[in-house]
Design goal:
CATH class of the largest domain in chain A: Alpha Beta
Structural class of chain A: alpha+beta
Distance between the termini of chain C: 43 Å
Radius of gyration of chain C: 24 Å
Helix content of chain A: 25-40%
Number of helices of chain C: 8
Number of strands of chain A: 21
Number of domains of chain C: 2
Largest interface: A-C, 41 and 36 residues
Chains: A alpha+beta (366), B mainly alpha (288), C alpha+beta (366)
Number of strands of chain C: 20
Order of helices and strands of chain A: EEEHEEEHHHEHEHEEHHEEEHEEEEEEEE
Number of domains of chain A: 2
Strand content of chain A: 25-35%
Oligomer: heterotrimer
Radius of gyration of chain A: 25 Å
Order of helices and strands of chain C: EEEHEEEHHHEHEHEEHHEEEEEEEEEE
CATH architecture of the largest domain in chain A: 3-Layer(aba) Sandwich
Helix content of chain C: 10-25%
CATH class of the largest domain in chain C: Alpha Beta
Largest sheet of chain C: 6 strands, mixed
CATH superfamily of the largest domain in chain A: P-loop containing nucleotide triphosphate hydrolases
CATH superfamily of the largest domain in chain C: P-loop containing nucleotide triphosphate hydrolases
CATH topology of the largest domain in chain C: Rossmann fold
Number of helices of chain A: 9
Structural class of chain C: alpha+beta
Shape of chain A: globular
Distance between the termini of chain A: 35 Å
Chain lengths: 366, 288, 366
């Protein structure tokens, strides 16, 4: 069982990093608690693979510490870290049977064969691999192979964390959700810390209780799927989570709120006061397409827009609107009436977010 | 829908037929023709049926050299395959050292057969050859020209020196094709070095090893030039392998009929052993 | 230019890859070929391109039979799944290559390459080589090459599969915009229903080598001709339940009953398949006579904007598509509400009899 603590951790591939740009991972402090189901989500090149390799021990961080249950493990090789890993492409020992594959880590630990047998059978049952135990591993399908490689981690009593590196990449689309379900069940059953690395929001949000979104070598938000969706802490999270992503508009501070191209958006007094005090000019507001209110006629606090494009996605429609020279997207449910030519939008206060230097400004009340 | 017969398609395969006919079938048929006749001159030839085959199969020269040949090929495989794997495993995987190793390994393969023979002929001499001199100065009486064991040993050593590189290069390329994730998984599973070799590297090397074993078997079974240059088949007949026996018979004594029968038997043995080997391996593959 | 396929069949080694395909693509139309893997999408595109010849049938361009005309003489562009570019040429040379082959004058080449590169936002990479670019930029280069010449037919063979979903979203929109102003026919192969909807235009449903439906994407989506079409054009898959209609009520799977309403009244008593869109099943009733069913959660797949809930009880396996984030643990007991007013009805032979908004008129003779 383990809590994984990344303490003042940073990593650079160059020997003498000069600027922040030289770092694959910028200094961070992060804790994965014992027994949690976590995801590490980010686009390619954000540093998530580097971070994964640092946790598994394949890479030693250039700065800071990796602590497992409070103990520094920087210098400990992967085989002594009690961590299992499931890779993007299934890794099985082709020449062995499924049984021998599952037994392999236990045999390497020189356990008694009867103990091995009971353990292997137990895990095979959980993973629904019993009918395949005598089959050669190389004759399995991709999803079966992926279960076997997961099983090799689960048979060991001493494994305290399992790392998943895009494990469903090669799985047939219609089997994916079954494997996702299996992963969740296993997590609920085993109380093992699991970290799931992916660039896919669906994979991450389905598996994890909490998601760390990585961007530019930093964790920009660590929160539940709901938090990431409803209150993105960084403009990147707003853009990356949700399809389409959050509407983000460049604005300037003005009396009683913010404005862009002559459109004034009022904000709470607390936020206005905050804006008066910050020196930054990088101010943005964000609102998700799902939360924009649309109507056919003008109502209090609404803005007039031209309808540029309507994308009919069957269960809902995505409108592209021109709001004073800015293109914004809004989502319209199936039963809602489609405005023609012009539409009036308003931004409900609780869903309108203010960003300064790309990070969310939170109100004390929330 | 029924398939349309299109006879023009045969023209497309014609070049291949012709090529195979000229390169393999026609020469082979000539040999078959010789092997069933007793030829005195251009115009006098008698059909003798299986007589030459019977004679050859009972010929002690053939028995001796066949036995010698099998022992030799066996030794070659037993030494070169494990040695080649070992060399490949020890080679650096990247950087300049890797390129350097690859070049060094390639050198023996680039030297013509007869030059290899000549090199070892000089190298192994007790008076002026570095190798022969060194062995002798260790107090071991070594003379490949006089002692059959020494001659045997030298021919084998020469072959190992010449061809182990090939096996090593094949294995090296096979090893490079194993994704890094396999090694990572094995480390996490706490596999020992031996287990990694046994369960990851060896299974992944299987296909290149099949090629390696086949190539080395066929090549060593037909070895001619190097022992011919080095020892001329001596001392006595100790390093006279099948191909040399055959040449002596055909060119030296001009016994074309028996030599032809001999060639065909020789050919069939190579074919049979390679086939046996290949099917066994593929069957093992399919099991389960 | 128009493209017509007449009774096109292609047989390879005794296997039907395409079976009696009749299709008429209009000038300037955007057509999505939607089908599962091996449905015949690639076979059909190769035939359209002239890379293969049909075993039977004719291919007409503008009414002229081009069945035997090879691809070189057809003025066609193609974009593939893999990012195919000339690796040792610069991006500029890559994009210019079709124009060079057509012996276009140098100043004209410069102008058109620049324009096309700008449309695809790769103008700053023109002097680089493709392999120095990211996956998205490489595919943009390949697309620019396909768009730079005025091809009369542009074929896209699942061009976005190998990109991550955010890039897919962006490029999809760009493709749609780029082809709007053109008179060429675009054909776009895809396995994803949502992609077909997002691209707009027309959709051709391919199933086991046969065209089962062709029409405007939203029309095909709303009114699938049969069960295969409904299943193919629904992600998550449409829920299908076998049910019995009597004079007074409908019985699902011999267990759940509800009284006939006016939407179903036209049906003769007998057995039918009932289809329900995942988005029409709710966690709260939308309508007074929605049907309440107790189920357990199998898995909640969360994408951010949406949650796909897989639920089951001893009779049904259902999928729900909900807006926003809904976090549920596996095996949580919940209630779901089936829409008795938004049912698709199929005969036992699979033919659609009615869909929400298009009620059945004639009698049913099963």
């Amino acid at each position: 069982m383990a809590e994984i603590h990344l303490k003042s951790l940073a990593h650079s591939y160059s020997a003498q990093p000069r600027s922040a740009a030289d770092y694959a991972i910028r200094e961070m402090d992060h804790i994965w608690h014992q027994g949690g189901a976590y995801a590490l989500l980010g686009p390619s090149g954000c540093g998530k693979s580097t971070l994964l390799n640092i946790i598994s021990g394949l890479l030693s961080p250039s700065e800071g510490e990796v602590l497992f249950d409070g103990q520094r493990v920087n210098e400990i090789p992967p085989e002594e870290r009690n961590i299992a890993q499931v890779f993007q492409f299934p890794v099985v020992y082709d020449s062995m049977t499924v049984y021998d594959n599952l037994a392999f880590p236990l045999r390497n630990m020189k356990l008694h064969e009867s103990k091995i047998r009971s353990k292997v059978l137990e895990i095979a049952e959980i993973l629904e691999l019993q009918p395949l135990l005598d089959k050669k591993a190389k004759n399995l399908t991709a999803d079966e192979k992926q279960k076997v490689s997961m099983g090799r981690g689960l048979v060991r009593d001493d494994v305290s964390a399992i790392l998943f590196d895009e494990p469903l990449t090669v799985i047939d689309p219609h089997l994916k959700w079954k494997l996702r379900r299996k992963l969740k069940q296993i997590h609920e059953q085993f109380n093992i810390t699991m970290v799931y690395v992916t660039h896919d929001q669906l994979e991450a949000a389905t598996f994890a209780d909490k998601i760390a979104v990585m961007y530019g070598g930093q964790i920009v938000q660590f929160g539940t799927p709901r938090e990431l969706f409803e209150a993105p802490n960084h403009t990147f999270v707003g853009y990356f989570i949700g399809s389409p992503g959050m509407n983000i508009l460049d604005v300037k501070s003005c009396q009683g709120g913010v404005e862009f191209n002559g459109v004034q958006v009022p904000l709470d007094a607390e936020l206005c006061q905050f804006l008066d005090e910050v020196p930054s000019n990088n101010i943005k507001i964000g609102i998700r397409p799902e939360f924009i209110h649309i109507s056919n006629e003008t109502i209090k606090g609404s803005y007039e827009c031209a309808v540029i494009h309507i994308e009919d996605l069957g269960t809902y429609k995505i409108l592209t609107l021109d709001l004073a020279g800015n293109l914004i997207k809004a989502r319209l449910d199936e039963d809602q009436q489609v405005p023609e030519g012009r539409a009036y939008v308003s931004f409900p206060k609780q869903w309108l977010k203010l960003y300064v230097d790309e990070f969310l400004v939170e109100e004390a009340a929330q | 829908m029924t398939k349309v017969e299109n006879n023009k398609a045969w023209f497309l395969v014609l070049p291949v037929f012709l090529l195979v006919a000229f390169s393999a079938v026609i020469p082979l048929m000539t040999v078959v023709n010789y092997s069933v006749q007793d030829i005195f001159d251009q115009h006098t030839a008698y059909f003798v049926g299986a007589e030459w085959y019977r004679e050859m199969l009972q010929d002690p020269r053939l028995h001796d050299s066949l036995l010698r040949q099998f022992i030799f090929s066996g030794c070659v495989l037993l030494i070169e395959i494990p040695l080649g794997i070992a060399v490949a495993l020890m080679m650096p995987t990247k950087g300049r050292a890797a390129s350097l190793c690859l070049i060094l390994l390639a050198i023996p393969l680039l030297i013509p057969w007869n030059v290899v023979g000549t090199i070892w002929q000089v190298f192994g001499r007790a008076d002026i050859g570095l190798f022969g001199w060194a062995i002798n100065s260790l107090g071991i009486d070594y003379n490949y020209a006089a002692n059959p064991m020494d001659a045997w040993f030298t021919v084998l050593l020469m072959d190992v020196w010449h061809w182990t590189s090939l096996v090593a290069l094949l294995c090296y390329s096979g090893l490079r094709a194993i994704p890094e994730a396999y090694y990572q998984a094995a480390r996490i599973d706490r596999a020992s070095k031996w287990a990694i070799f046994r369960y990851i590297q060896l299974p992944k090397l299987k296909s290149v090893l099949v090629i390696g074993v086949l190539l080395r078997f066929m090549d060593s079974f037909m070895i001619y030039t190097e022992p011919f240059v080095l020892t001329g088949g001596g001392p006595g007949n100790s390093t006279t392998f099948l191909s040399q026996t055959l040449t002596k018979m055909a060119v030296g004594q001009f016994d074309l009929g028996p030599a032809a029968a001999f060639s065909l038997i020789y050919f069939l043995i190579v074919l049979l052993v390679s086939w046996l080997f290949f099917t066994t391996i593929s069957h093992l593959d399919k099991a389960k | 230019m128009s493209l017509t396929l007449q009774n096109v069949t292609r047989i390879v080694d005794g296997e039907y890859h395409l079976d009696d395909v009749n299709l008429m693509l209009e000038p300037g139309s955007f057509n999505v070929l939607l089908g599962r893997t091996l449905a015949g999408k690639t076979s059909l595109m190769r035939l359209m391109a002239g890379l293969d010849k049909p075993s039977e049938g004719r291919v007409l361009m503008n009414g002229v039979d081009v069945t035997g005309v090879p691809v070189q003489q057809r003025n066609i562009s193609m974009v593939y799944q893999q990012f195919i570019n000339y690796p040792n040429w610069t991006v500029f040379e890559n994009i210019a290559s079709p124009l060079r082959l057509a012996k276009v004058a140098e100043p004209e080449i410069k102008k058109r390459v620049k324009e096309t590169a700008e449309m695809l936002h790769i103008e700053q990479f023109l002097e680089r080589r493709p392999l120095e670019l990211s996956g998205g930029q490489q595919q943009r280069t390949a697309m620019a090459r396909a768009l730079v010449k005025d091809a009369s037919l542009i074929l896209f063979d699942e061009p976005l599969v190998n990109l991550d979903y955010k890039l897919r979203e962006e490029l999809r929109q760009e493709i749609r915009e780029l082809l709007k102003a053109r008179n060429s026919i675009a054909v776009y192969a895809s396995t994803e229903p949502n992609e077909a909807l997002a691209l707009g235009g027309k959709t051709t449903l391919l199933h086991e080598g046969k065209v089962i439906q062709h029409g405007s994407s939203s029309e095909v989506y709303r009114y699938p001709v049969n069960v295969d079409a409904a299943e193919l054009f629904s992600e998550p898959p449409i829920n299908l339940i076998r049910g019995f209609v009597s004079d007074t009520e409908v019985t699902f799977d011999s267990t759940v009953h509800f009284p006939l309403n006016q939407d179903i009244r036209g049906l003769k008593p007998g057995d039918y398949y009932f289809g329900m869109r995942p988005s029409h099943i709710g966690l709260v009733p939308h309508n007074d006579d929605d049907l309440e069913v107790s189920v357990r959660v199998e898995l909640a797949e969360i994408s951010g904007s949406e949650t796909f809930m897989h639920v089951k009880n001893e009779h049904f396996n259902l999928v729900l598509q909900l807006s926003g984030v809904h976090e549920y643990h596996t095996d949580t007991p919940i209630k779901v509400y089936l829409p008795t007013h938004k049912l698709f009805v199929f005969g036992l032979d699979g033919q659609m009899l009615q869909a929400p908004g298009r009620l059945y008129q004639g009698g049913y003779h099963g």
